[in-house]
Design a protein that fits this description.
Layout lengths: L2 E5 L4 H12 L3 E8 L6 H13 L3 E5 L1 H6 L29 H15 L4 E3 L15 H12 L7 E3 L7 H11 L21 H13 L9
Parallel strand pairs: 1-2, 1-4, 2-3, 4-5
Helix pairs in contact: 1-6, 6-7
């Protein structure tokens, strides 16, 4: 059986990807990263999903990233911006070079486990704000990861040309349990419904014509 490692944030995109990879018949495991994000609830969501699907799961600490690369996602003194995901103010939520660091560590983990395929759930809605979610970055990382070791790992980003609404439509077909996901950048008891991440999630559920199981303030 083909072995796959999925980078699982605990959000709806990577969770949908996890369901898809598992359905496609891969022997699947997942890895999450704790980089000091305010919305640590996503890590609990990731663990719950993996427990539900009986998928091996590991969380790796990246506390140093918080020290080196400040962002509204990690610093208490910075407010989470509100508004649409593509808004200029959402650039405050960029954690510089986060995906390169995560992909590098996930690659090392995949090599150690002799895993052939590494998946991450970037999508077209990320392109405007996050440089490390764009096709060019993915293409270069795909090439670098393949050359990183004698055991070749193939990087896959099957959602890179889909938007979040498309992912929700796919998740509906896969019967993804979205109650075990977390998207809001605030990380409070209930989702705020105002940050760009919440706004985009709500739009995605509307496109898929399904009810978001999360509670909103």
């Amino acid at each position: 059986m083909k072995k796959a490692l999925v980078i699982l944030s605990g959000g709806m995109d990577s969770t949908t990807l996890l369901y898809q990879v598992r359905k496609d018949g891969y022997e699947t495991r997942a890895v999450s990263f704790d980089y000091g994000q305010k919305h640590k609830k996503e890590l609990k969501a990731a663990a719950l999903t993996c427990e539900h699907l009986k998928i091996p799961h590991r969380t790796i600490s990246l506390s140093v990233l918080n020290e080196l690369a400040p962002s509204a996602l990690t610093r208490d003194e910075w407010d989470i911006p509100e508004g649409h995901y593509a808004g200029e103010n959402m650039k405050q939520t960029v954690v510089p070079n986060r995906n390169m660091v995560m992909l590098s560590l996930a690659t090392a983990y995949a090599i150690g486990k002799k895993v052939k395929y590494l998946f991450y759930g970037v999508h077209s809605g990320d392109h405007a704000i996050y440089p490390d979610c764009r096709p060019a970055f993915y293409s270069y990382m795909q090439d670098a990861i393949m050359r990183a070791d004698w055991h070749q790992v193939l990087l896959k980003a099957p959602f890179i040309h889909l938007d979040k609404g498309d992912i929700a439509v796919l998740g509906k077909k896969l019967s993804v349990d979205y109650s075990k996901t977390w998207t809001c950048y605030q990380g409070k008891e209930k989702a705020c419904g105002k940050c760009g991440s919440c706004v985009e999630r709500l739009e995605a559920f509307e496109k898929a014509e399904i009810k978001d199981p999360l509670e909103y303030e």
